[in-house]
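We emphasize that the prediction below concerns an isolated chain of 322 residues; any contacts that depend on oligomerization or on bound cofactors are therefore not represented. The input was used exactly as deposited, without trimming of termini.
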Amino acid sequence: MVKISDISVMMFPWGVETPTVGEIVEGAKLAEELGFYSVTLPTHMTMPPGWLFTDFPNKNVLDAFVVLPAIAAATKTLRVGTNSCLLPLLPPYHWAKYFSTLDVMSGGRVILGAAVGWWQEDFDAVGANIRKRGKMFDEGLEVLTRLWTEERVTFQGAHYQLDGMPMQPRPVQPIPPIWIGGGLASIDRTAKYGRCIVPFWPSPEAVRDVWKPKLSEAAAKYGTDPKLSSFTFAYVADGEADFQKYLPTLRNCVGFEDPSIDPTDVTISGSPEQCAEKFMALSQAGIDHFVVEFQFHGLESVAFGMKQMEKFATKVGPLLKD
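Result of the prediction step, given as a token string:
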């Protein structure tokens, strides 16, 4: 059975209308009141080119790592995290310290969503080598998880070296859950280090026939139990005319890799009944958790996203069932 508590909301520290920290915090507080599982923020250094970002009239990107503590301080039960933190941009000791401190501050509510990154300027901003990001990512996962669990860490890798290094304070959670954003190539590292993998909108058929079998195979290799999440865009429409109004935006949202993708196939959108049916089909296929966004990646305001959150909770939520 799908519940509101099985769904996380992605919010944005940027927008056509540049949001304030206060607006983002209010959106997160509403997500908590409505019963959503978590709020996560993306962590780009600068505004990427192309895709949806060509429509932004500004390049303002608030630092998600400043906004997250404000959300944590203003909420009590909502989990807070990243979607995703680009680990290769900074040394793993930095990430271990930051997320451990945030976990202490929030009383054990942190999620570390992590990814390798793709936008060249993110790497240029800090002098990191984008060509080596895969190895840096894996070494970073190894180091930060050990820093959270060992008294002193010695590590000699190709990119990071530590010699008997301690890290305090420890997180409240023994190991804060790591959600790895990526495709099939990230299944192995998810099974080794992560709580779940968060790919873009797999179909029910792909979940049953590809994702779950491969994830189970990798889990057996490491003796772990990683979960499968799904990231997608969501829009609860007030009738067909309203849906048609936002269909071009949805098409733009999902067409950055393949313009032929039909947004009605891969987004949670349409009438409340259609949205509920899509959620249940994915849940029955094997999706364990959902990460959705109601702002079209920042093309719409926080206020717009809040209205969509309320509409989802009140109109779609009651229709979710086995």
